[in-house]
TrEMBL record:
Organism: Eriocrania semipurpurella
Record's keyword terms, sorted: Cell membrane, Membrane, Olfaction, Receptor, Sensory transduction, Transducer, Transmembrane, Transmembrane helix
Taxonomic classification: Eukaryota, Metazoa, Ecdysozoa, Arthropoda, Hexapoda
Predominant subcellular localization, coarse grouping: membrane
Protein name as catalogued: Odorant receptor
Tagged with keyword Plastid: no
Domain of life of the native organism: Eukaryota
Membrane topology: Multi-pass membrane protein
GO BP: signal transduction
GO molecular function: odorant binding; olfactory receptor activity
GO cellular component, one term: plasma membrane
Places the protein is found: Cell membrane
Family: Belongs to the insect chemoreceptor superfamily. Heteromeric odorant receptor channel (TC 1.A.69) family.
Amino acid sequence: MSENIPIQRPLDQDFVQLARKQMLSFGIWPLKYLEGIDNKLYLAHSWFVAIAYHIMFLLQLLYVKTHSSASIYDIGHMMILVTMSFAVQTRLFGQLFNMKQYGSLFKEFFETLHLSNYPHHDEKSVKILHNCEKSAKFLFIAFAGLTGLGVVVFNVAPMILNYRSGAYQSGGETALETSLAFSLPFDYKHNIYNWAIVASIHAIVSYTVIGVIISQDCFLFYFILHILGHMEIMKEDFKSMLQKYKIREEEDEKQVGEKVLFVSQEEDHEVYDKLKRSVDHHIQLINFVVLIQDVYGLTLLSNYVFDVAGSCILLFELTQLTIESLLRYSLFLVGTFGQLYVNSVFIDQLVSVSDELRDVAYAIPWELLGRRSRFVLRMFLMRAEHPLRLTAFGVADVSVATMTQIIKTSFSYFTMLQTLE
């Protein structure tokens, strides 16, 4: 390990500290598995958040049922909320019912796969580590800032509409608008005090929804960044093998003048050790990607379902071209497409970097290697033929190609919705 460049512990990294605080507030930080704290109160808090949100989801469905005769734009607004609530519930309950595997994923990452734990650090690998951490921190702050602004605008838009319509001064004669829609046993559309309570709850729910999505997705990106970092280190190792080969020219004693290229036994032994280490390293990455797939597969599928359903309805809502619709849905749509883009591009890099790693390995002059080094290189190339990838619960690859298809499908459904207006 490099002694001149300080390397922080995985749990002390800036991104981890930021994400940990947010995830603790929602009860989705694997406290028991990462910190060895079996806190019953914290577990109760986790279940409280999930159950409370499930109750709100049911109240949303009941509201949709009792307001089925509303305008198509109002129904569209309700369906956006229902699809997003479904996606968030998938995350919350998927984690709670799969907590052991979820905790194992985080534990494996922080104890083994995090680049801070890499046992053969040099200046290049430390630089890769620092770049990963900077990228993760930037992504988290950028997403938190943009989505936080979106939450504020989404909840303020109905207040502006109420002010413009004079609902605050109407004494209950004009219905008050809210950001979310729940079926409740009391009137909050014509009572300013009830409305204030419900609006506050809506703001908390909105913050929780965005917080859960951002923290979980950013950790997925964090995992991907470190996997990509590991593959970059492996690429550098292969390149260094090529550079360190002392390919010499010697005259064969039996055939004077013929030049023979070879690698010394000492060099071949060094190459064998590096190749064997690379094979073990690659197997470790493959197993970790499988673990990510098991934990995040359903979440990725629910993301794609919302991207298709939510984006086409958001586009339709924007066709109203009112101040309220532009305020309420424009940032929402940007956030939806932004998440789709970042998810797809980040995860698709697993495939492209895997291909680059395979190509670099193919460039090694295998004909110069000893028998055992050739065997190990062949093992690596056989595994490298299948690039690392993630799927949306086995339904579709998470990739730029899938993203393009989703956008096309969303616009097709949007065109169909316009005919129903």
